[in-house]
């Protein structure tokens, strides 16, 4: 791919083939519609459709210039008033010559301008092709390209901060130090293993470990922060459960801020699973209110109980609700025992009534216990803190460099695993050729993360998730 502006000697046919265009604004009516053109022939394509009022030929313009003028259709008819912004390679988003035509944001007019641009020699861009070119031209690393997609789809403050951090190069910088250390060790080991006849000293295990263990710790910290932050980016599945009449639906309504769920003092009121998207502090929860767990009831209620059990089994977080105004029952104990291995908050509800449950009765379950009144909202802050604690978001540092998707986590995890194995191989005195393979794999995983050694299949998968025009 060409990255210079020396386009005057290019063969016209191949230059035209490598110039792409797309509408970069959403497929909806708006104030402005933007048609983006990039490639070696971008400015000549723009000049064929855009006439500046001042008479300047945009094909001859220098970069960072904006012109006012008109867009013409293929037959010369005037289409729209527009602005044309000119970028010269390599100082553009893609690293190539670029022109952006900003016309009126009508659905039809924007498409009509694009058609004129395509008739003038550009070809339609694939989804993500502009960002892919930025990556292929070395403007950004692969994880930064992914940050562009994450920025576009960010729905909250934490997601925005994380994406911006990665786009700004924070993740790349964080990975550079461990990658350098692994590369240095790999080089020392390879030299000794691959050139036995040379007079190369055997690498010293302690010296290698002094580099590899901190590198592994850096990667482990990245993985931990991803686990802690992922809930903030993606949310968690939470389920409210307990025996009938403990106040589950009242709690659901409190967390939703509306009267979604029917509340009565008749046991068995909630039968189906009721769902709502809520936020507890900064944490997005996909919350489900379920039928009270009990044996008996009619056929419909029993199906509800089965559904409740399935939902409890699949949830990331369980709110086990007890009626604090009544002593614990066998059903309560059965539920709490079933939650032993789960992320679970035990909620003692109805604290506005005299208490019949002592906190000591619950100590043996080893879970966080929160006392609240779903009726008055008292204790909601404690519930939020308990959830932040259990899901680890309290420890999440949005300012720290962060992995922002599963592909990045997988690469980082692979590097960390290989380093762990390499370290234990060194500690147990295994031969260095085994260590060499592990270090190579660790390094490759980090290079793959940054797109420095990613297969075409990987990069295709990354860019296919983009929208056209980006
Ligand atoms: N005093 C008091 N009553 C509550 C509280 N939460 C729920 N209730 C009452 O308990 C009964 C059952 O509530 P509901 O939310 O339908 O319980 P569910 O069967 O677990 O969904 C209703 O009469 C509620 O008004 C609370 O915090 N304090
Ligand atoms: Mg209910």
Description:
The chain has 470 residues and is α/β, with parallel strands linked by helices. It folds into 3 domains: 119 residues, Gyrase A, domain 2, CATH 3.30.1360.120; 133 residues, Four Helix Bundle (Hemerythrin (Met), subunit A) (Up-down Bundle); 161 residues, Rossmann fold, CATH 3.40.50. The protein contains 16 helices and 13 strands. A 7-stranded mixed sheet has the order 3-4-5-6-2-1-7, covered by helices on one side. Helix 2 packs across helix 3, helix 5 runs antiparallel to helix 6 and helix 14 runs antiparallel to helix 15. The two termini are 18 Å apart. Bound molecules: guanosine-5'-diphosphate and magnesium ion. The site of guanosine-5'-diphosphate (GDP) has 21 residues, from helix 9. Guanosine-5'-diphosphate (GDP) binds next to helix 9.
Count of separate structural domains? 3
Tally the helices: what do you get?
A: 16
The CATH architecture assignment of the largest domain turns out to be: 3-Layer(aba) Sandwich
Biggest sheet, spatial arrangement of strands:
3-4-5-6-2-1-7
Largest sheet: 7 strands, mixed
CATH class of the largest domain: Alpha Beta
